[in-house]
């Protein structure tokens, strides 16, 4: 049986990366030849990966200039992570950008009770009547027990509106910490740097970093924790930060590269900003199901070019 297209892309990209690194032996070359000859789909996947790699070479000066400051997100699985190694060369940068977009690893998919794909936002009613809204590329596990309502945020971001029940605390576990509430509303987001961000939109929650640090947050406040550090960030613009529930992304005076990173959460593939435009500050409202149109609008307003180099890579410069 021929593996799925995603699996073939992963294998093909692994081979291209190894060839680019020079990390191959004579036996490896023979194995690659055998794999390419085993099925036409293998050869097609390899040629596409190689073609995408080569097409990036004309952007090498830009990549080298920004490799030290860009940190494109890695989409999990060991092979994709290796394809996405970040370094100071075009090879490492290109590999990162061409990481295959995989929604969930098998373990997460098996554990999750609810999950969303890239660009998808889902509203869920929990067993006790509480509500959850899952943001793009997110997953939760629901485990209600006799004395506790337990949610584990496996991936991404979710907002919860909790039905009051003092006898059964509502606890969201995220990374090493947890957020405890009885009757309130709040969001929890897993950040790329392994920190967790909590925003309270109603009531008060108790937050623990999983060690000895605890805190509380009330309506309008944001708290982040991780790495044995808990940071009380104070009042924030809830309407903007939680606008994703209405399928909108509100950007207020942020550097373009930072704003694009947020938009990229709702877009399949990677969006990269190159050149001086990276630090331009922008403000705008974007529809989560119209990110390409939003990029076109940014480009038109700032005199930039949008280049769709491959289905998995868009460059703004």
TrEMBL record:
Domain FecR N-terminal: 12-51
Gene3D superfamilies found in the cross-reference section: 2.60.120.1440
Membrane-spanning segments: 83-104
FecR protein domain: residues covered: 114-205
Transmembrane in keyword set: yes
Keywords, comma-separated and alphabetical: Membrane, Transmembrane, Transmembrane helix
InterPro entries named among the record's database cross-references: FecR, FecR_N, Ferrdict_sens_TM
Name of protein: FecR family protein
Source organism (scientific name): Steroidobacter flavus
């Amino acid at each position: 049986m021929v593996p799925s297209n995603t699996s073939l892309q992963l294998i093909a990209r692994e081979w291209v990366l190894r060839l680019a690194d020079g990390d191959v032996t004579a036996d490896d070359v023979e194995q690659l030849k055998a794999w390419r000859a085993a099925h036409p789909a293998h050869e097609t996947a390899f040629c596409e990966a190689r073609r995408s790699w080569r097409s990036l070479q004309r952007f090498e000066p830009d990549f080298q200039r920004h490799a030290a400051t860009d940190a494109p997100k890695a989409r999990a699985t060991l092979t994709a992570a290796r394809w996405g190694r970040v370094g100071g060369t075009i090879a490492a940068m290109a590999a990162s950008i061409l990481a295959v977009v995989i929604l969930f690893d098998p373990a997460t998919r098996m554990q999750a009770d609810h999950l969303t794909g890239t660009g998808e936002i889902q509203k869920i009613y929990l067993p006790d009547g509480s509500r959850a809204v899952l943001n793009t590329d997110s997953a939760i596990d629901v485990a209600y027990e006799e004395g506790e309502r337990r949610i584990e945020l496996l991936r991404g971001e979710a907002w919860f509106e909790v039905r009051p029940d003092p006898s059964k605390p509502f606890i969201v576990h995220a990374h090493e910490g947890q957020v405890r509430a009885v009757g309130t509303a709040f969001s929890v987001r897993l950040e790329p740097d392994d920190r967790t961000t909590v925003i309270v939109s109603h009531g008060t929650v108790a937050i623990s970093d999983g060690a000895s640090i605890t805190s509380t947050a009330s309506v309008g406040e944001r708290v982040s924790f991780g790495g044995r550090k808990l940071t009380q960030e104070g009042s924030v613009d809830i309407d903007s930060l939680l606008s994703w529930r209405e399928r909108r992304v509100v950007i207020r005076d942020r550097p373009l590269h930072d704003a694009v990173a947020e938009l990229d959460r709702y877009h399949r593939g990677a969006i990269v900003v190159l050149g001086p435009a990276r630090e331009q500050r922008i403000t705008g409202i974007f529809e989560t199901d119209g990110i390409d149109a939003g990029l076109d609008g940014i480009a038109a307003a700032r005199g930039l070019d949008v280049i769709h180099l491959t289905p998995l890579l868009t460059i703004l410069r």
